[in-house]
Batch of 3 targets.
Target 1
Amino acid sequence: MQVCLGCDIINGMSYISTIVWQRPFSTTRGFTMIELMVALVILVVLAAIAIPAFGNFVKNTRIYTVSSEIQTTLSYTRSEAITRRVPVSVCPSIDETSCSSKWENLGGHTGANVGLLVFIDSGTAGTRDGADQVLKYIQITDPNLEITASNDFSSSDPVKAYVQYKSSGQSDLAFTSTLLICDDRKESYRSGDYGRLITAYMTGRTEILADQHCS
């Protein structure tokens, strides 16, 4: 006996039934114009908030990076003076070979040679002369930086645009001196507590204070 699945039996005869499947009625619809406009307005508002915040984050990161590099270089210079038992100096430079006259020259320059020069200072203090050996050069290139120096770091005494460390680890600074690192937000009158202050002491110690006012 044969069994036919999906068959109808009419008058003793088997007929194959055709089964037609239909998809359920779909209720999916598109967005209305009003909904699209509301979504667009929300995106514009979020972008207006997020873009400036991201820009400030990038600028703050640059200030953090540069200030950390300067502090690290000062500490390295002191360490080399102690290790080598000779005076070692660090100064701003715009040509990788000689000292610049201002710490402020570390900011606002686009040249690839702007940075910090560390050298054995066996001759005239603060001047690379004779056989003074360059130990390290740290490139600092950010045209948007603005650096304000105080006391011995001040540009009012251009000859002192350097720090020399003795073999004892002490610096030749006559006063506690600072470098305030800000950026071009000052130019657009956007003052705020986003700066970082590098402080160098006569003992040779350095520190960084965050959230300093730039105006």
Target 2
Amino acid sequence: MTKAPRKRQREANAEGVFPRSAARLAAVQALYQMDMASTDVTTVIAEFTHQRLPDATTDDPLHGADPQFFADIVRGVVRRQRDIDPAVDQTLATGWRLVRVDSILRAILRAATFELLERSDVPGKVVINEYINVAKAFFSEDEPRVVNGVLDKLAHGYRAGEFADKEPRASAEKGND
């Protein structure tokens, strides 16, 4: 008896859209809006799920976004922000604080950190890659590298088991001096 191939979660829909990728981009936009305009979570989720996501045309990067995944990220960031912000703060380069970081970059780091904390169904490397891509949608300079560095450190801390088997052990590299 053969096993049926396992369905991958990262599959494009019939229109070639990756619903979770589009939802991540929408979540970052919503978090940015909340930060800049002091919009509350219920209002921003309603605006996106009832207006912006359904009205997105096929050439809009939000087209086909998974509204439930979007709402889960936004609600989760708000719920866990007291855990997320200090963790990101401690991971940023010396002398940098999350409050000094660009608002969009801050939204990216918060959303990604939430996924690393609570979405164990999404591998850490996928979370990192997805949010690097989100950063590239907004920035063309150093910001995607900042996202990569911060998320890599956080992922190794939160999900050490995912990375443990794939990295060389320090003792094996040192040799027997």
Target 3
Amino acid sequence: MNAMPRSPALFALAAALLIVAHAQAQPRTRSGIIPAIAPAAVPDTLGPNDSCGLLSTESGPTPERMDLYPATITQINGERPRMARPLYRMEPGKHVLVVAERIPRSHLGTADQAQIAKMQRRKDFSGFFKPLVIEVRADTLQRVGVRLVRERLNAAGIRENAYWEPVVWEEVPRECR
């Protein structure tokens, strides 16, 4: 039985983000970070001509000096991965991930830590997860993490779970076979 909640609001948000992604065709911030939207149908499924791309949350340290931190992938295309792992082989194309932040609490003030803990105790689980829609590219490693949004690191931003956003923070060529 799948213990992961499937919030209709979360999937509605993911669908809206997918529509925005199509309309904006690969939006990037000034730093080159791709904001939210995620991966392929079934992990470890090859695409046409045995092509695949790689997604990782653990393949090297995240650049914390840029307010980028580790993430956990909790769902891929609406399904919970059978096994959590640091690297997922994915069919090229658009995919939707559900991501949880792993910002070290030692990087936050004590008042922020208390507010985050309070927000995460909500019954709707909206304090834990956000969708990320990405375009998986063949023979490319995409590193997934979260960006701390310091300007939203206040009581209202934390209550709205707006203090972080899922991102693809790096793409590097890497053969996937």
